[in-house]
Amino acid sequence: MDRVLPKRFWTQQRLILSGGGLLLAGLLAYTFFFADKRSKLNVEREKITVSPVKIGAFEEFIAVTGVVQPLKTIRLDAIEGGYVTQKLVEGGTQVTKGQVLLKLENQGLKLSFLQSETEANRLVNDLQNTRQRLRVERFALRKALAELDAQIEQAKDGYDRKARLIKDKVVSEEDYLKDKRTYERLVKQREIEAESQKYQEDNSKLQIQQLEGTLARTQRNVALWQQTLENLVVKAPVSGQLSSIDVEVGSNINRGQNIGQIDDLNGFKMRVGVDEHYISRVFPGLSGSFEFNGQEYTLSISRVYPEVRNGRFDVDMIFPKGVPQGIKRGQSSPIRLELGKAAKATLLPVGGFFSDTGGNWVYVLDNSGKRATKRAITLGRKNPEFYEVLEGLQPGEQVITSSYENFGDNEVLEF
Fold first, then answer.
1. Could you give the strand order of the β-sheet that contains 54-58, starting from the edge strand earlier in sequence?
2. What secondary structure does DSSP assign to 235-304, as a single string?
3. Which of 32, 289, 327, 403 could connect to 352 by a Cys-Cys bridge, CB 3.0–4.6 Å?
4. Helix H segments across 76-172?
5. Looking at the whole model, is its pTM more than 0.85?
6. Does residue 25 lie in a domain region?
7. In this entry, which stretches build a coiled coil (predicted)?
8. 8 band by pLDDT with thresholds 50, 70 and 90
9. What is the pLDDT of residue 1?
């Protein structure tokens, strides 16, 4: 006989439904409490650049470009103005000191020279006439004194004779006094004549001194005008290469106008443009280096030009160990300009990531190499090859250093 079995609660269907519900609930709980909720982006590994973080010597330097220039460049300025009548040398020619380059014409200067020369000649004639007049006056005065001396001597004889005779009352007192007054008058007249002669001679000497002084000044003016006329012939002040001469026959040149330059080819230097950001850190004595014909040469800053133009300032660098053989004026070359001594540091290669993050964070690969996560970092100094890492990275870690432009705000990159 059949027996009725009791109905079971946990049927196979219920077990399957309960298990599926528990599995779904567990999955939801894991997703809510434990799953990685960070934004992710899949990228192709071949399209990014990964660089290692390492320990090394951080050399603080900047890459600049230098242009070879002569060690000395002499500006060729017109001392006097005028129009060009002859141009004897073209640019690029080797010239020697004193060689004539240009000849100028200036009628105004010639006229001034002739006027000064005429004035000097007039003063020479005046001086000669004054000296001649002084000689004639001296002869006349000597003659007048000689005649007075003769008259005094004659009057004195008569006076002395009357003085003896009046004692014997041979002559009258009136005759005696008359001869006495005549004698005394002649003596007084001689004193006045001698004093007048001295005054006239002193006055003539003063006139001569004044004329000599005026003549000397005028002759100096004549010499200056002569030198000015000579400056109309433009000569090379030094030997070297006339690199440029910017005038043509018939053109007018003003006084002080630059008409060219002469390069001293006995030595060379490098003229280097540096970003104004480094103006406080660049000073004479800093060293640098560059390659030429497969060899490395040392440079040293000799002069800093403080004027900033278009965000850059110039420095001159010389070759302390000798100029490279075969170097030519106008050649340009990249230069490694050192700003400080090398120091041990954690280094991160330079890359395009910096323009997107400002150096505040980077993507760092995990140990599997299949995922990179965003991490905050702190960078210090920079040279053209490396950043100095201050915080956030350890040697051996791998960092994406290419541009982050296409990564958006995603925190995790998966390859």
1. 54-58, 343-349, 386-391, 378-382
2. E-SSSEEEEEE---TT-EE-TT-EEEEEEEEEEEEEEEEEEGGGTTT--TT-EEEEEETTEEEEEEEEEE
3. 403
4. 107-167
5. no
6. no
7. 117-165, 189-228
8. low
9. 46
